[in-house]
Amino acid sequence: MRSLAAALLAERRVSARRGWEGENRELFEHPVEMNVVMGPMISNRGRRWDLFRLVIFIYACLAGLVPSLGWAEGMLLRPANVQAFDTPNDGGESLTVNWAPGPLDSPDARYQVLLGDAGATDAASLKVIAEFPAQTRLVKDLKGPWWTRTAERNWHQFVIRNGKGVALKDGTAYTVTVAVLKGEERMVGPLLQAAPTPNWFNWNLVNNLVLTLIFGGVVFFSIAQAKRRDIFLRRIPGLDAVDEAIGRATELGKPILYLTGAHDMSDPSTIAAAVILGRVAKKTAAYETELLVPHRDPITMAVCQEITKQAYLEAGKPDLFKEDSNFFITSDQFSYTAAVDGIMLRKQPAANFFMGSYFAEALLLTETGASTGAIQIAGTDSDHQLPFFVTTCDYTLIGEELYAASAYLSREPVQLGTLRGQDIGKAMILSVIAIGILLATLGVATQAAWPQYFLDFFKDVK
Amino acid sequence: MDATIIGAWVATGLTLFIFSFLYKDNPLFKLAENLYVGVSVGYTIVKTYDTVIVHLIWKPIVENQEWTLLIPVAIGLLMLTRYVPKAAWLSRYAFAFIVGVGAGLAIPRTVSSFILKQIEDTIRPLLMLVPGEGVTFSWNLMNPASSVNVIIVLIGVSSVLFYFFFSVEHKGPGKMVARTGVMFLMIAFGAAFGYTVMARMSLLIGRLTDLIEYSDPSYGRPTLWLALVTIGTLIALSLRSRSEPPEEG
What we know:
The structure holds two protein chains of two kinds.
Chain A: H1 2-23, H2 38-43, H3 47-62, H4 65-69, E1 83-86, E2 94-99, E3 109-117, E4 127-133, E5 156-161, E6 174-182, E7 185-188, E8 192-194, H5 206-228, H6 237-252, E9 256-261, H7 268-287, E10 291-295, H8 298-314, E11 326-328, H9 333-347, E12 351-357, H10 361-371, E13 375-380, H11 386-392, E14 395-398, H12 401-410, H13 413-446, H14 451-455
Helix pairs in contact in A: 1-3, 5-13, 6-7, 7-8, 7-12, 9-10, 12-13
Chain B: H1 3-19, H2 27-63, H3 70-79, H4 91-122, E1 128-130, E2 134-136, H5 147-163, H6 173-213, H7 222-243
Antiparallel strand pairs in B: 1-2
Helix pairs in contact in B: 1-2, 1-7, 3-4, 5-6
């Protein structure tokens, strides 16, 4: 009885495979046929059994038993429409494999992705680099946007990347295929050749480019507007305090301590801190107040030296400029902190400015500054350190207020226009969020896929 | 003497000297501070020489003939023209390059992380598709993706974003929205504060664990002896400062 069942299953597999290939003949890619499983299965049977199972099968078909017994649902077919190609929109060293969903994709079936050297003709020589349940790794589950999708949403996709025994080299061809497993049975797809290459453009990020261009256009438009008419800017309490702090230091005859944060000049917050330093330095030059700017980054120090020098020139006090008002301590986080704490205690600055990006040193610096009785003004976009600045400083510029600070202090049309442009950008973002939530809700309520075309455009896809 | 024992004495001494800052600024803290700065600068110089000069410049150019690296080297050398007053203007090209590249790299990264990512995570359907129940409005506060949490996040994001409108005056209904935004910010700051304080406590526990371990006789009890030295020095300095006349001015 057991032999009979096996014989029936084998015949069923053969028939189903033939039917499937026939249906997909035009779409199917099969440079090398790999009928590695079926042949031995059939040839090992005796003639007697061949005849017997043929009779039984014909009888079953005629009686319409195949569908009613569910035999078609249990047949193992080799992966169809397998495609292997260089992963688009990447830096190279990666291949992508797509294949159509099989009619037997079920939780107990599994797929294997195989990789080997170019020219391999035997699936046995390929290495299994991944194995996963048959109902996973679908295109629709991946994060890619619709405009770079390489297969239908219900297709399978696997991206082969370097690591864990895989070492792909750009320009080198490899043999790739997919196998399907169910129980003890295994069907290998066609062997395909593909070579990874790096790409110049990442079209996944085209939404990033479009948004940058839109926001850039809005900012340029706003700058043009700001040059023609006044732009209202609401009061920012922390910035009003800058003049107060410099004035207090001047009255007390004590220096002003200005920190530009932990990052280098590639960080926008450090650039903003350097711009505000220019405004503070101009005031200190005008009031002839000493300015101390200890640094953690030598390049930031050099840039800030130039900014300070320019500020003293603009204030008409170039002779008061001291080259060593900007000085480097060390790039190490806590030794820098210890040194600045020492400066706070010994020089007793009347005002401490903490602008830029900060890490764990934030609380150590501001606590010491608070103990000396100095006015403290902080401005950072390091959200994890903002609580410490809020609790220990007199005024804190939260997040984007740091970037608004230089516009507020200078009142220059270019900077005011930039700020206005950013506000318009934020209004656009709020609108997108409102429309997006509406569309996402409609998508759930109606089970429609079309809202995703809009939502994909606002996805962060690297 | 075993290097481990020397290390234990140095670590204990410097930890206690730094902790002495909790009393007030004193010569022991200054000693630790200057030692710390000096060692870190020395370490940075050696590390920079090895990483940048040897591995990023010398070896690739001299051994691998990667001549294109001479371009960044030349740009880097322009910075040194600052020490020649007549050629100091050349250094501005290097700074312009650094700031320009920095801004160019930061803009797409910022759009990606601070705009697209935030929008993507905020846009969530107000209704949920629950298997067996169909489309429903979920009131489950414990589920981050529930409908009620989507509304809370939407209110939070909108009000906080409105707070950062600088060209719109916060008055009337706008004032209420901005105040809601500040409330959301403060709640977030409070949570972050508590979380970070707990992390700092673990750092303190780490130092105290070391001090306890180094009070063991196998190390020569450095914690005990150096604590006595630190406390004794602070008392002596305090007595000395009392006996000295206060500084004028």
